[in-house]
């Protein structure tokens, strides 16, 4: 059971990945993001998730540097993730994209690098590039994002190194049962993006009733549900009070009945693109 904010899951290669982190999707470059990163680290977060397409790696990097000075932590205390965008899913292009992300972040390595989307005909060459980066010791762990079971099976058919993480849209209305079960059986850690469905679940009556029973917010109930399902979660916020509130999920446990009710909300409903039918 995940009992504190800095608890970690052990990836297939032995690397420790925090169960809980800060996501920064749609947060623009600038002081607000720098301060959000600092607030997260100051309040105990150790995982930060960005991507090339977010166009905010520079501010994330600045926030990391300032946070380390403020807290006296070291780079090794943090777990930093970025992702290669669709336009760079060739072997050489992916390696170049990694170098660009490192430069923008101002880091010497990433803890986790992901293929952002399974673009047909391109992601296997990109995976070869990630394997090279990993074998050269340039990145601590490699994985994918938005991959469905058949994408994972396709990668695994030829991979020298299997993906260690699959980051997908995951929330009570999209519980990704098939993907979650496949990842669990294959030793791939599932990670949730948009765990709060971009706020669309906060007025759900079932979740509100469970929240009232536990004296928690709906957001906290959802994030606790993620963790109890064995799913790493990275809620987004730029407000320090919300960053603190989101992480206040380690002092209670959802009952089996609670979990069943939440699991029963699934409608296979997405707020993001369908990985099998998207055009970027």
UniProtKB/TrEMBL annotation:
Signal peptide: none
Domain NADP-dependent oxidoreductase: 31-265
InterPro entries (alphabetical): AKR (IPR020471), AKR5G (IPR044500), Aldo/ket_reductase_CS (IPR018170), NAD(P)_OxRdtase_dom_sf (IPR036812), NADP_OxRdtase_dom (IPR023210)
PROSITE patterns according to UniProt: ALDOKETO_REDUCTASE_1, ALDOKETO_REDUCTASE_2, ALDOKETO_REDUCTASE_3
UniProt cross-references to Gene3D superfamilies, sorted A to Z: NADP-dependent oxidoreductase domain
Identification of the protein by name: Oxidoreductase YtbE
Naturally occurring in which organism (per UniProt): Paenibacillus marchantiophytorum
Gene from which this protein is expressed: ytbE
